[in-house]
Amino acid sequence: MAADLDFSPPEIPEPTFMENILHYGLFFGAIFQLICILAIILPIPKTHKTDTENFEAKSSEVIKKPKAIATSVSKKPKKETKKKR
Questions:
Q1: What angle do CA 40, 41, 46 make, to 5 degrees?
Q2: Distance (Å, rounded) from C-alpha 11 to C-alpha 32?
Q3: Coil, helix or strand for 42?
Q4: Three-state secondary structure along 52-78?
Q5: How far apart are the C-alpha atoms of 27 and 29, rounded to whole Å?
Q6: Which residues contact 23 (CB under 8 A, 6 or more apart)?
Q7: Which positions ≥6 away from 15 have C-beta within 8 Å?
């Protein structure tokens, strides 16, 4: 009775070329997604030197430009709506 039992592992066919591509593609896709998620969660800190230089250079421009841009942006849609009528 013990001689009738076959305890050898079942034969598993070797994966095909397309199965290998799919297998490794899924791994690379998962790694890429983890990197993207980590990039969102952990932002790269900027150096203090670049922050102060950019702030000093743009401080006078930032105060003057938004007012001019805001007025010109609000005027453009009004003109366009009049033209459509």
A1: 80
A2: 34
A3: coil
A4: HHHHHHHHHHHHHHHHHHHHHHHHHHH
A5: 5
A6: 15
A7: 23
Q: What is the pTM (predicted TM-score) of this model?
A: 0.41
Q: Residue 16 corresponds to which tokens in the numbers above?
A: 């095909």
Query: Whose CA is closest to 49, among 39, 40, 57, 60?
Result: 57
CA–CA gap between residue 44 and residue 73 (Å, rounded): 33
Distance CA 65, CA 60 (A): 9
pLDDT in tens, 26-75: 999 999 999 999 999 998 877 766 555 555 555 555 555 555 555 555 55
